[in-house]
TrEMBL record:
<dbReference type="InterPro" id="IPR039421">
    <property type="entry name" value="Type_1_exporter"/>
</dbReference>
<keyword id="KW-1003">Cell membrane</keyword>
<dbReference type="InterPro" id="IPR003593">
    <property type="entry name" value="AAA+_ATPase"/>
</dbReference>
<keyword id="KW-0067">ATP-binding</keyword>
<feature type="domain" description="ABC transmembrane type-1">
    <location>
        <begin position="26"/>
        <end position="308"/>
    </location>
</feature>
<feature type="transmembrane region" description="Helical">
    <location>
        <begin position="165"/>
        <end position="183"/>
    </location>
</feature>
<keyword id="KW-0812">Transmembrane</keyword>
<feature type="transmembrane region" description="Helical">
    <location>
        <begin position="141"/>
        <end position="159"/>
    </location>
</feature>
<comment type="similarity">
    <text>Belongs to the ABC transporter superfamily. Siderophore-Fe(3+) uptake transporter (SIUT) (TC 3.A.1.21) family.</text>
</comment>
<feature type="transmembrane region" description="Helical">
    <location>
        <begin position="245"/>
        <end position="266"/>
    </location>
</feature>
<keyword id="KW-0813">Transport</keyword>
<feature type="domain" description="ABC transporter">
    <location>
        <begin position="343"/>
        <end position="579"/>
    </location>
</feature>
<dbReference type="Pfam" id="PF00005">
    <property type="entry name" value="ABC_tran"/>
</dbReference>
<keyword id="KW-0547">Nucleotide-binding</keyword>
<dbReference type="GO" id="GO:0005886">
    <property type="term" value="C:plasma membrane"/>
</dbReference>
<feature type="transmembrane region" description="Helical">
    <location>
        <begin position="21"/>
        <end position="42"/>
    </location>
</feature>
<keyword id="KW-0472">Membrane</keyword>
Amino acid sequence: MGNRGSTFRELRRLIPYYRASRLPLLAAGICALGAMLAGLVIPLVTQKIIDGPVRTGDTTALVWLVLAVAGLGVVEAVLLFARRQLSAPPNNRAEAGMRAALYAHLQRLPLGFHDSWQSGQLLSRGVDDVATIRRFMTFTLIYLVINTTTIFVGLGIMYTLAPVLGLVVTICMLPVLVSTYFYETRYRVVARRAQDQAGDLATTVEESVLGIRVLKAFGRGEHLRGHYLKQAADLRETGLRKISVIAVLWTTIIVLPGLAVAAQLAAGAHGIAAGTMTLGTLVASITLTTFLTWPVESLGWFLAELNSAAAACERFGEVSDTGPAVTDPADPKPLPRPVRGELRFEGVRMRYPAADTDVLSTVDLTLHPGETVALVGATGCGKTTLTALIPRFYDVSAGRITLDGTDIRDLSLNDLRSQIAVAFEEAVLFSATVRENVAMGTHRPTTEDEVREALRVANAEDFVDTLPQGLDTPIGEQGLSLSGGQRQRLALARAVIGRPAVLVLDDPLSALDVHTEAEVEQALRRVLHGVTALVVAHRPSTVQLADRIAVLHEGRIVATGTHRELLASSKVYRTLLSTMDDDASEVEDLEVTAR
């Protein structure tokens, strides 16, 4: 009973999505019930024909009785058609609503959630599981209720016609109900396992497609193919277990109604011979049993689908029930206009939920309006974490970050992120045109002049104009048709098109040569004069373009100053400078410039 309660508890998740459609779905259920009841009446008319015109030879009423059978058949067909017409639109709307809600919720969830979930599992929940729920609501749920009702009504009619025959059918059906309950509990476990394995398989396919260059370069295609085949084999094995469970159930369901017919024939023949039963009653009873065969047989399949839908609801809820760690404040403060761009870190500490130690510990740093600060530090010291706190991809564990004196947690996310642009080390582009990818950096509509200006800032206009359709050239998935430097320049153009007050660059220029990088930096300073910029730097050529440098070491800002000042005062900075990923000649030139 605990499992059954869990099943219906999971299905209750669907109420908000189907509440608006309850009337058409109720009407669809009534139509389905009417169709089944019309079918149940046909055996009673058959009894009248056999015990009337056939037995007596008086065919006066035969035409009307035959027309009644035909009419009931037409009514049944019309009601089934109406059931489809009534149930399909609301179910498809609910399916679209669930997908839209899940997609919107995924956008609100923190980066930590996406870091811990496989994309294939999320894809499986948003596509396959929602489709499973829609199929259940469109057909299975209605007929699970209707067929169960039909069985009880049919048995009631049978008891009215001949209690003995009704008892025979009841005795044969009880094992069906018991076996159905037993096997559907086993089926749910197997169904959930199959859905999870399908998500893992989707993840492998997605990763192998996105990483096809790596697989080919290292000749590891066969290795991943073996992994894929192992997952596919596991899914196949689980699928066979599902079939095994269903096969046993269906065997029971199919055999017992046949036995019921045989037992009815034996009892009915004895009753007719004894004069206690008419031939019409026996035929009507057997016809009713035949009519009830599908409702009885379908119970096993419907209960299997019920458990598949419950598992799909559970998997859907694992995502939709996860609350966003970063949310808008209850009463957001307005950001003073115009935004100056002063960014201040005050005693900032950061620890990830699953970590035992702080990534950042007591970070104090001020970026003055219009100032470019380079953030340098060894690998793993927390540079990327620090930049992720500014647009509130994560919230600080302690301390605060302010923008123009206002704690960023007191601002609405839209207000905050409209003033902060981020360009990541890994340039992520979407399957859209160049124009659409660049325009994604701002909420407002953009003109072609604005897009081109952003491209000029990022030193990307020339190569874009050489593309087959210029700004309207479609970029393939992940922008893999472009070079690394081209992708990063488009990502930089996307970051600057909204003219943000604060620009956060997580080393987005790593794929550019030194000359192009310097041109982009100079263009940024010229066109975006007065913008506050925090740049994670791994190259001396980037460091020297900053107004000031902040050294992050073991989660703390241990030194700030100009390049010349830090060379003279910070041993940590000198060590970092010597290990930066640049030619030795660049480091020497930088040191000469400082002297």
